[in-house]
Amino acid sequence: MPPNVRYCSEEEIQFLPPYFKNTGDTPEPVLCRTEGRWPEWLSGTFVRTAGGFWSVPLSEDGSKPDAQLQHFFDGLNVLHKFEFVGGKVTYQSRSTADGVIQKAKKSGFLHTLIFGLNPNTALRDAQDPCWARLGSQASIRAAAFTSIILTRELIVGTDFNALQILDMKTLEPKRIFTYAAIDPELAGYGICAHPPKDRKRGHIYNYLISDEGVMYIFAMDYASNPAKLVWKTALPCKPCYIHSLAISSDYAIFVRNPVHMDTSDVSKPVSQMLTLETGESTIFYVLDKNTGSIVATYKAAHFFFFHSVNAYDYVDEKSGLKTIHVDLSAYSGDYCSFLDYNFSNLLDPACPFALPRLVRYVWGVLDGGGPAPGSLVPLGKLGNGVDIPCPAFTSGIVKTDWQTGKFLAWRPENGESAPCEPVFVGRPGATDEDDGIVLTIVINRTGTHSTLIALDGKTMREIARAVMPQVLGFGPHGSFIEEPGLYDGMKLY
Ligand SMILES: [Fe+2]
Fold it and tell me: Which cofactor does the UniProt annotation name (predicted)?
């Protein structure tokens, strides 16, 4: 275990910035105070998942210490929603883990699948024996959630075979189901938080590990009613852990990470079950989108990745060969960043983050902290004069063009900090790929609230903002849904 992975007490947690503390929610819609000019063409809904509860009460009367979640991925979810109509911005948010929190209050123990260390450790010096049963008892929780949307209902999923349905208007959680409810063939575990969607075909692609330990890739038709399995293909390799797949126009590409889940001791948190396969190749499996057949397999040098960014296929003019490009955000060497995000590490003044490498034309967040001049909410404890505290979890937003080497960066000003993952919204009718706006959210100088910011996609300059009535907990994912809903008509399970 790296030295920076240890349980942080309530006392230490107070040094974390507000975006890693309980944010609460705003269930009733609020009209945001805005500045600048929100584009008239912008019509739709922007949804973000975010950690919203990291301290969870374990008693009704406060007689027990709170459970303290210990890892950035473990925050219990608050779903944030912005609606854009005629230049006006409305905001509301809602906790989607009320059931988990209520259960913790009643039982005196937080039962949920946890990536980092056991949050109940404050209760006892030793790990609670109940912990050993948690491996298969995932409750819906969240920072790693991604979302898809319907007109009236919203589905969120994560790196686990579970989907949660929420009411689109009120964000109220309604029910949870697994992919097996769509087709019994989809029973098992695996499942990544970023199944790529082919909007033309109406298909979604994901991976699955059967109880027998066979790894499959499958295509699901989400546009049919009811949704149905299209194909399911076994891969000739050991099960592994991945967080995203890639698709080009003709192919689904599964990149086998050289890391797997060691389930010999399910009392361990997920981050400690993940086992890197030192020196093993990273393997690319290319599957025909129509049939699911494996058309090519390639071995690459050893690397680890979380996110695919883009993929496309074309016939190379010189060789006449079909060629596929896949862009990934990759970590080289025998290291991956998930251990960096333990709060014990974030609180350390040295605060080392591993930085992935990219990529092509893309909007991204500048990781690894960086300047946040004037911010009164630095990340972690103050420095000791030798090491410098990390000023913020993320430092800016960047647009980079791999082909030309050009990039444009935007960093928050006036003490604002920690911009979240950007989401690009193209202007209807645009022909240039950067004609539109880039949405991100920053926390204000004193840490009392967050603000949604729109940047011009071409110039990366701020054009408008909308002030939120609360803090956005840090969470990696969001989606913009143009009107009408893309998945309207999909049968809900
Ligand atoms: Fe992700």
Answer: Fe(2+)
